[in-house]
Amino acid sequence: MKQAAFAGCVVAVLAACQPVVSQGPDLSTCGADALQTLVGQPASVLQTMRFAHETRIIRPDTAVTMDYRADRLNIDIDRTERISRVYCT
Predict the structure, then answer these.
(1) How many of the other CB atoms lie within 10 Å of CB of 88?
(2) Over the stretch 6-16, which tens digit does the pLDDT of each residue have?
(3) Do 55 and 75 touch, CB atoms closer than 8 A?
């Protein structure tokens, strides 16, 4: 009887251990959600744009700080001078 109760407790505890699925950063905090259409565009389109949030344009081999700021817009440019990613950090 005690073994059955113990086994039941173990099963209950293990059932509560669900993996946490990360949703990733919220793209709306810096406006990146509205700018996803920029991905794949040439970097030159950024020259005429103004952004509501602090913005970092990050090219290959550019040193950037690792501090986290949810309201900062980051735009990654790849080696072919195309926008490869728009995100918040």
Answers:
(1) 21
(2) 555 444 544 55
(3) yes
Determine contact, residues 29/71, Cβ cutoff 8 Å.
yes
Write down the residue that tokens 């550019």 correspond to: 62
| Residues of the chain with confidence (pLDDT) below 70 | 1-25
Identify the CATH number of the domain in which residue 70 sits.
3.30.10.10
The residue type of 49 is M
Dist. CA 77–CA 69, nearest whole Å: 20
What pTM does this model have? 0.70
**Is 83 within 8 Å of 40 (Cβ atoms)?**
yes
Q: Report the domain count for the chain.
A: 1
